[in-house]
Amino acid sequence: MGANFITGTGTDIGKTWLACALLRHWRQQGMRPAAIKPVLSGFDPAAGGASDAGRLLVALGRPANLAEIDAIAPWRFAAPLSPDLAAAREGRRIVFDDLLAFTRQAVTGAPLLIEGVGGVMVPLDEQHTVRDWIAASGLPCVLVAGTYLGSLSHTLTALEALARVGAGVTAIAINETPDSPVALAATVESLSRHVAGVPVVAIARGHPDAGIARLAELLC
Ligand SMILES: Nc1ncnc2c1ncn2[C@@H]1O[C@H](COP(=O)(O)OP(=O)(O)OP(=O)(O)O)[C@@H](O)[C@H]1O
Ligand SMILES: [Mg+2]
Q1: Residue-level pLDDT at 208
Q2: Which residues of 107-142 are buried (b: 16+ CB within 10 A; e: fewer)?
Q3: What CATH code is assigned to 3-219?
Q4: Probe ligand 1: pick from 12, 13, 20, 55, max atoms within 8 Å of CB?
Q5: Where are the domains of the chain?
Q6: Would you state the pLDDT for residue 96?
Q7: What is the reported pTM?
Q8: Catalytic residues
Q9: Residues in the chain where the model's pLDDT stays below 70
């Protein structure tokens, strides 16, 4: 069991939700997973528990106080924008090498999930995007996608972008989009034909346990 990034085809696709479900699953099995969310935009200190970092801490059974949030999410910005723009609003910038060093020091051999930020091509600074962060870390990722109309193209585009920088993909998690006109099974079937053997895991809305268990196994 090692470390995996949780990235996605875009924002709001279910990265934190999925990470929390995996963390709870492993803890129920007696494991002691860890999680970090190094870069967090749209952070409101008055509602830290509701932030991605707060949700991950709750799933880990840790208090969602500011000290704990600081430990897993050091790059926090107030504006709900891409990290480069959110940082600029505060006259700050993310130093890519520092982000990489923080990510590497979190890897201990225990199960670790690293939630990225937004989708795979979100800018972190003037030169780097999330995919560069994943590739430079040398760690594989789980790509979270949906079933909304358009998600097949978004998912295959994200895969191409990751492949171009040599980032490994452990699995694609299809997190069923509510009220989607495309069935979950049809999305999985279509995508599977185009992803050269990367496992595609269906996460069914309302009854996700089997999908979470399969994904947890793939990450072991
Ligand atoms: N399978 C699911 N079942 C129920 N709720 C879900 C599921 N997936 C996502 N959600 C909900 O959808 C919303 C968006 O999900 P989430 O916050 O995990 O997205 P994200 O990709 O982490 O977004 P961000 O880019 O802001 O980090 C949240 O309210 C989350 O609880
Ligand atoms: Mg999130």
Answers
A1: 98
A2: beeebbbbbbbbbbbbbbbeebbbbbbbbbbebbbb
A3: 3.40.50.300
A4: 12
A5: 3-219
A6: 98
A7: 0.98
A8: 37
A9: 1
